[in-house]
Design a protein that fits this description.
121 residues, mainly alpha, 2 domains, 79% helix, elongated
């Protein structure tokens, strides 16, 4: 009879301990959820800004390049407003297809989100 009482007491203790562990896990899960609540919003903003980063990276690189002092520079050849305009035009022609592709991709992905069957038509 004493063994049965001890067994029931042990069972109650285990149930109490199990409930405490469940409550602790629930509390930790709530803490993790609140600590990582910013992640989806940040990812959404990063995806939205990605095309801007693609365009801004070369421009920022050009802006932060260390310019050589005048004495070390090679003689300028064709550097004038016409050469700058031509360089800008060439850059535009290289970036435009990428930009259009990204816009098309985003438009298709938005259409895909709106259609439950997953088709783009």
């Amino acid at each position: 009879m004493a063994a049965k009482v001890n067994l029931e007491n042990r069972k109650r203790q285990l149930l109490i301990e199990s409930e405490r562990c469940r409550e602790a896990m629930d509390e930790q899960l709530r803490h993790v959820q609140s600590a990582t609540a910013w992640v989806p919003k940040t990812l959404k903003m990063a995806r939205a800004a990605y095309p801007l980063f693609l365009l801004a990276a070369p421009l920022l690189g050009y802006a932060f390049v260390r310019k050589k002092p005048v004495a070390e520079r090679p003689p300028a050849r064709g550097s004038g407003i016409l050469a700058t305009a031509l360089a800008g035009y060439k850059l535009f022609r290289r970036v435009k297809p990428i930009w259009d592709g990204l816009r098309l991709y985003r438009a298709k992905s938005r259409m895909g989100d709106e259609n439950p069957n997953g088709s783009f038509h």
